[in-house]
C-alpha cells in the first residue's frame, strides 16, 4: 500500500479511485491533481514510481488543497 501524506491508500485500485481516501480530496480535486502531476489516472496505485508519488504530493501542495488534520481542525 502506498503512503501519501501520512495516509495509506489502496494499492490495488486505480490512483483516480485511491486518492479520495485522503480526507479533503474528492473526484474533482483528484482529476486536477493528476493533471498537474502528469500521472495517468488509470495506473494502479501500487504501480506508481516514487517520482510519480512525489509529483502527486507536490501537486497537492501547489494547488493549496487543505487535507487531513488541517481540514479537520478547520471544520471543527
How would you portray this structure in words?
By secondary structure, this protein is mostly helical. Helices cover 47% and strands 5% of the residues. The protein has helices spanning 15-18, 27-37, 50-62, 68-75; strands at 3-4, 7-8. Strand 1 (3-4) and strand 2 form a beta hairpin. The longest helix has 13 residues, at 50-62. The mean pLDDT is 90.
Poorly predicted tracts of residues:
none
Lateral arrangement of strands in the main beta sheet: 1-2
What's the total number of strands? 2
> Per DSSP, what share of the residues sits in E-state strands of 2 or more residues?
5-15%
Helix content: 40-55%
> How far is it from the N-terminal to the C-terminal residue, by CA?
30 Å
Helix-strand sequence: EEHHHH
List the helices and strands and how they pair.
Layout: E1 3-4, E2 7-8, H1 15-18, H2 27-37, H3 50-62, H4 68-75
Antiparallel strand pairs: 1-2
What's the quick description here?
By secondary structure, the protein is mostly helical. It has four helices and two strands; from the N terminus they run ββαααα. α2 (about 25-35) packs across α3.
Amino acid at each position: 500500500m502506498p503512503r501519501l501524506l501520512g495516509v495509506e491508500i489502496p494499492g490495488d485500485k486505480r490512483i483516480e479511485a485511491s486518492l479520495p481516501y485522503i480526507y479533503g480530496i474528492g473526484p474533482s480535486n483528484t482529476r486536477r491533481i493528476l493533471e498537474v502531476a502528469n500521472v495517468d489516472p488509470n495506473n494502479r496505485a501500487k504501480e506508481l514510481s516514487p517520482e510519480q508519488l512525489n509529483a502527486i504530493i507536490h501537486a497537492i501542495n501547489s494547488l493549496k488543497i487543505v487535507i487531513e488534520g488541517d481540514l479537520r481542525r478547520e471544520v471543527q
